[in-house]
Structures are given as C-alpha cells and as structure tokens.
User: Fold this.
Amino acid sequence: MELNLSYGERFRVSTREGVSVVQPAGELDLSSVDRLRECCRAAVEASGPHLVIDLSETSFLDSSALGVFVGVATQLGADGGWLRFAGAQHPAVRKVLDITQVGTSLGNYSTVEDALTDENG
Amino acid sequence: MYRAGKGESLVSSNPTPPSTGEGKSLRVEFAPESVSAVRRGLQAWMGEVDASSDAIEDARLVASELVTNAIRHASPLVDGTIEVAWARRGGNLELSVSDGGGPDIPYVLDAPLESSDGRGLGIVSALAERWWVTDHCQERTVHALLPLND
Assistant:
C-alpha cells in the first residue's frame, strides 16, 4: 500500500512494508523544524512507531533539524519503535551525522531497504 | 585571542580588531528564514574567492548554527536584526554573528545522545579552527575562524 501525503514540496511520506518513510528534499534548518516535526508525527500516526528518514534528497541538515529527528526517535524508542536514517548522500549531511554521532546512535543505513531489514536494535 | 574549549566559554571585553582584506557585512531579520539567507550569501562570496568546496560546506554549517543560536537563545540588536559579517584573515575566514545577547554566555554543551537540543556549538567547535565570544556595549558577537581552503 502506498500512502502519499504532501507537505509543500519538501517532504514526501510513503509506506513501505508497513513502515513510514519520510523523504525530505532540499535544505533542512530552523525554518523547516515545525513542518518536519508535523510530518514525522503524521507518518507515525499513519503507520506506527517505526520511521525511516530517507536523506537521499537532502542537501543540508543542521542541528535544529537533527534535533527534531532525535526528539522523534526518543519518543518512538519509548514506544518500542525506532527512527533510522537511510541514503545520506550529500557530504555535508553525512558530516553532521558523523560529528554529532547521531548517525551511529540512531542507525545510518546505505539504503531504505537496509534500514527496513536490519533486525537489530 | 581567546580559545573556548569544551564546556567553557570566554568573553573578551575588547571588540575584535578590524579585519584586513575583503569581506562582507549584512544585517538580517531576527527570523528563521534568515538562516538560509546567510548560507546563500556566504556561499556566493566564498565561491568568488575560490574557497574549496569542503571549506564552503563547513562554513555554511557553522553560519547556520551561529545564526540559529542567535535566534533561539538571544535577543536581536537594538534595530531588531542580527548582524553577520565575514572577512578573510590570512588563509582563513573569520565569521562573526552579532546579536543583543541572551541570559547565558554561549558554551558547548555535552549534549546526551537522546537530547534534541544543544549540538550547535559542538558542531562549530568540531569544524572551526577556534571560536570565541566578544561583548561590546549591548552587543554579543560569536566569532569562528574557519579554513578557506582545505
């Protein structure tokens, strides 16, 4: 089943194997945090406490946007779920995930498939 | 000059001496939309001075963090804006973001992994050669020295 919600041009939400996949496009910073949070909440309400953030179309990410993902991940963890990153391509995005160790902490997978099929964690 | 290490922040009472070499200074609105505007302006200037792409990416991220901190944790300057300036200093870029100050002197938090806040200056610390804070009249400025070429 495909569920597609549109939040402007920036966020695409779909469902794969029963898990919501949020794909933010472009640059994520302080001006995106409210919509990003709303988008993650809607995705979790639709499909449950597992969420993959597909960063393949994300060209920039700073600590304010990262904080949204960490906040959502903490909530999902408390509900027995998880938030995982997948597909980070852009060097700036990969660097932020590395420096802050958030990528290692939450899981940073090459592809959405890898994130969905990892049985650990 | 002062170096702010992990978990500490030093404030100098003297304003930074004027920079040598070209640069730019702009005032932006005290609003979330200014964060990307500053990134764009800085990127354009760094492209003109032939900065490396790695240096541009790092500077964009540091600028984003400093402007975000100003909006989130401080008040605007008396005219309601934030002032952002950058200039060449030898082979480096000095980036400065001035606001009206906040309740706390900016410092690096040792943010727990599950915390949704407190990573901004940790990122600045990791990418900048050094960063420091100056207070002058009713202005507080956070400066960061970054490479122009890697």
